[in-house]
Amino acid sequence: MAFPRMLARLTLMVIAGATLPNPVGATTLIHLGVDRLSAENELVAKARILEIHSYWNADHTFILTDVRARASQWLKGAHAGDVTFTLMGGTVGDVTTLIIGGPDLIPGSEYVLFLSRFDLPGAPHRLTVRDQSQGVFEVRNERVFSQALGEPLLPDANGVAAAPGGEAGLTVGELTQQIREHSDR
Asked: Mean of the pLDDT values across residues 13-32?
Protein backbone atom coordinates (compact mmCIF):
# COMPACT_ATOMS: atom_id res chain seq x y z
CA MET A 1 0.00 0.00 0.00
CA ALA A 2 2.83 2.43 0.82
CA PHE A 3 4.67 1.72 -2.45
CA PRO A 4 1.78 2.86 -4.75
CA ARG A 5 1.43 6.10 -2.75
CA MET A 6 5.19 6.73 -2.96
CA LEU A 7 5.11 5.98 -6.70
CA ALA A 8 2.19 8.41 -7.15
CA ARG A 9 4.11 11.17 -5.33
CA LEU A 10 7.24 10.54 -7.38
CA THR A 11 5.16 10.66 -10.59
CA LEU A 12 3.63 13.99 -9.53
CA MET A 13 7.08 15.43 -8.84
CA VAL A 14 8.32 14.34 -12.28
CA ILE A 15 5.22 15.84 -13.93
CA ALA A 16 5.71 19.08 -12.01
CA GLY A 17 9.30 19.36 -13.18
CA ALA A 18 8.35 18.63 -16.77
CA THR A 19 5.51 21.15 -16.88
CA LEU A 20 7.21 24.20 -15.39
CA PRO A 21 6.97 27.16 -17.74
CA ASN A 22 10.08 28.50 -19.44
CA PRO A 23 12.61 29.71 -18.51
CA VAL A 24 13.64 26.79 -16.34
CA GLY A 25 16.65 24.53 -16.27
CA ALA A 26 16.21 21.72 -13.76
CA THR A 27 15.52 23.66 -10.55
CA THR A 28 17.31 26.79 -11.71
CA LEU A 29 15.62 29.85 -13.14
CA ILE A 30 17.17 32.23 -15.66
CA HIS A 31 17.27 35.76 -14.22
CA LEU A 32 14.37 38.01 -15.16
CA GLY A 33 14.68 41.69 -14.41
CA VAL A 34 11.78 44.03 -13.64
CA ASP A 35 11.94 45.11 -17.29
CA ARG A 36 11.05 41.63 -18.62
CA LEU A 37 8.65 40.82 -15.78
CA SER A 38 6.75 44.03 -16.52
CA ALA A 39 6.73 43.68 -20.30
CA GLU A 40 5.85 39.96 -20.36
CA ASN A 41 3.03 39.88 -17.78
CA GLU A 42 -0.46 41.27 -18.35
CA LEU A 43 -1.27 42.29 -14.76
CA VAL A 44 0.86 43.56 -11.89
CA ALA A 45 -0.76 44.23 -8.52
CA LYS A 46 0.25 45.15 -5.01
CA ALA A 47 -2.13 42.85 -3.16
CA ARG A 48 -2.90 41.17 0.15
CA ILE A 49 -3.51 37.41 0.09
CA LEU A 50 -6.99 36.66 1.44
CA GLU A 51 -7.36 32.93 0.96
CA ILE A 52 -5.56 29.89 -0.42
CA HIS A 53 -7.29 26.66 -1.47
CA SER A 54 -5.56 23.54 -2.89
CA TYR A 55 -7.39 20.84 -4.87
CA TRP A 56 -6.89 18.11 -7.46
CA ASN A 57 -7.33 19.15 -11.10
CA ALA A 58 -10.30 17.72 -13.02
CA ASP A 59 -8.33 14.63 -14.10
CA HIS A 60 -7.09 14.04 -10.54
CA THR A 61 -3.51 14.03 -11.89
CA PHE A 62 -2.08 17.20 -10.36
CA ILE A 63 -2.63 19.44 -7.35
CA LEU A 64 -3.36 23.11 -8.03
CA THR A 65 -3.88 25.99 -5.61
CA ASP A 66 -6.28 28.88 -6.09
CA VAL A 67 -5.23 32.12 -4.40
CA ARG A 68 -7.65 34.98 -3.79
CA ALA A 69 -6.07 38.41 -3.28
CA ARG A 70 -7.28 41.97 -2.85
CA ALA A 71 -5.30 44.56 -4.77
CA SER A 72 -4.57 47.85 -3.06
CA GLN A 73 -2.89 49.13 -6.22
CA TRP A 74 -2.77 48.03 -9.87
CA LEU A 75 0.68 48.74 -11.30
CA LYS A 76 -0.13 47.33 -14.73
CA GLY A 77 -3.55 46.47 -16.12
CA ALA A 78 -6.67 46.43 -13.98
CA HIS A 79 -9.09 43.90 -12.59
CA ALA A 80 -12.45 44.52 -10.96
CA GLY A 81 -12.84 43.26 -7.39
CA ASP A 82 -10.67 40.59 -5.82
CA VAL A 83 -8.37 38.67 -8.15
CA THR A 84 -8.09 34.88 -8.10
CA PHE A 85 -5.13 33.14 -9.68
CA THR A 86 -3.91 29.55 -9.75
CA LEU A 87 -0.53 28.14 -8.80
CA MET A 88 0.90 24.69 -9.48
CA GLY A 89 1.34 22.53 -6.40
CA GLY A 90 -0.16 22.44 -2.95
CA THR A 91 -1.39 19.95 -0.38
CA VAL A 92 -4.59 17.90 -0.46
CA GLY A 93 -4.97 15.49 2.42
CA ASP A 94 -1.65 13.72 2.90
CA VAL A 95 -0.38 14.39 -0.64
CA THR A 96 1.81 17.40 -1.39
CA THR A 97 3.06 18.57 -4.77
CA LEU A 98 6.01 20.89 -4.23
CA ILE A 99 7.18 23.14 -7.05
CA ILE A 100 10.85 23.95 -6.55
CA GLY A 101 11.37 27.66 -7.16
CA GLY A 102 7.63 28.35 -6.98
CA PRO A 103 5.98 31.23 -5.14
CA ASP A 104 5.43 30.97 -1.39
CA LEU A 105 2.35 32.95 -0.38
CA ILE A 106 0.88 33.40 3.11
CA PRO A 107 -2.70 34.59 3.80
CA GLY A 108 -2.68 38.07 5.32
CA SER A 109 0.67 39.00 3.78
CA GLU A 110 1.16 41.60 1.06
CA TYR A 111 3.01 41.08 -2.22
CA VAL A 112 3.61 42.61 -5.63
CA LEU A 113 2.39 39.92 -8.04
CA PHE A 114 3.22 39.59 -11.76
CA LEU A 115 0.31 37.69 -13.35
CA SER A 116 -0.43 36.25 -16.81
CA ARG A 117 -2.61 33.61 -18.37
CA PHE A 118 -0.90 30.26 -18.89
CA ASP A 119 -1.88 26.63 -19.40
CA LEU A 120 -1.41 24.62 -16.19
CA PRO A 121 -1.74 20.83 -15.90
CA GLY A 122 -5.43 20.10 -16.54
CA ALA A 123 -6.31 23.79 -16.22
CA PRO A 124 -5.89 25.74 -19.48
CA HIS A 125 -5.60 29.51 -19.74
CA ARG A 126 -5.44 30.24 -16.00
CA LEU A 127 -4.25 33.48 -14.47
CA THR A 128 -1.02 32.53 -12.68
CA VAL A 129 2.42 33.65 -11.55
CA ARG A 130 4.11 32.14 -14.61
CA ASP A 131 7.59 33.29 -13.61
CA GLN A 132 7.56 31.27 -10.37
CA SER A 133 9.37 32.95 -7.42
CA GLN A 134 10.64 35.74 -9.71
CA GLY A 135 7.07 36.95 -10.19
CA VAL A 136 6.49 37.60 -6.47
CA PHE A 137 7.92 40.40 -4.34
CA GLU A 138 7.19 40.43 -0.60
CA VAL A 139 6.14 43.83 0.77
CA ARG A 140 7.71 44.68 4.15
CA ASN A 141 7.71 48.22 5.59
CA GLU A 142 7.12 49.79 2.15
CA ARG A 143 10.08 47.89 0.69
CA VAL A 144 9.79 44.92 -1.68
CA PHE A 145 11.99 41.83 -1.78
CA SER A 146 12.01 39.34 -4.63
CA GLN A 147 11.20 35.78 -3.59
CA ALA A 148 13.91 34.76 -6.06
CA LEU A 149 16.54 35.91 -3.53
CA GLY A 150 16.83 32.37 -2.22
CA GLU A 151 16.95 30.75 -5.66
CA PRO A 152 20.05 29.99 -7.73
CA LEU A 153 19.43 32.20 -10.77
CA LEU A 154 21.34 31.68 -13.99
CA PRO A 155 22.64 34.87 -15.63
CA ASP A 156 20.48 36.45 -18.32
CA ALA A 157 21.83 37.55 -21.73
CA ASN A 158 23.44 40.61 -20.05
CA GLY A 159 25.24 38.48 -17.43
CA VAL A 160 22.95 39.58 -14.57
CA ALA A 161 22.07 36.85 -12.08
CA ALA A 162 21.02 38.77 -8.95
CA ALA A 163 17.34 39.06 -8.05
CA PRO A 164 15.99 42.60 -8.63
CA GLY A 165 16.76 44.83 -5.66
CA GLY A 166 19.13 42.27 -4.13
CA GLU A 167 19.22 41.75 -0.36
CA ALA A 168 18.35 45.42 0.27
CA GLY A 169 15.20 45.23 -1.84
CA LEU A 170 13.56 48.22 -3.49
CA THR A 171 11.12 50.80 -2.21
CA VAL A 172 7.56 50.28 -3.42
CA GLY A 173 7.97 53.58 -5.29
CA GLU A 174 11.15 52.42 -7.08
CA LEU A 175 9.53 49.16 -8.16
CA THR A 176 6.34 50.95 -9.24
CA GLN A 177 8.34 53.40 -11.37
CA GLN A 178 10.31 50.57 -13.03
CA ILE A 179 7.12 48.60 -13.73
CA ARG A 180 5.40 51.60 -15.32
CA GLU A 181 8.47 52.51 -17.42
CA HIS A 182 8.73 48.99 -18.85
CA SER A 183 4.98 48.35 -19.19
CA ASP A 184 4.65 51.18 -21.70
CA ARG A 185 7.14 49.62 -24.12
From this structure: 57
Q: What per-residue confidence (pLDDT) applies to 29?
A: 86
161 HSE (CA, 13 A, CB side): 9
Residue in 155, 151, 132, 105 with CA at minimum distance from that of residue 19: 132
Q: In terms of residue numbers, what domain contains 37? A: 2-183
CA dihedral sign, ordered 48, 96, 116, 178: positive
Radius of gyration of the chain (CA): 16
Going from the C-alpha of 122 to that of each of 61, 107, 184, the distances in angstroms are 8, 25, 33
- Count of the separate structural domains present in the chain: 1
Whole-prediction pTM: 0.84
**Strand intervals (E) in 10-165:** 24-25, 28-30, 43-56, 63-76, 83-88, 90-92, 95-97, 110-120, 123-128, 136-140, 143-146, 153-154
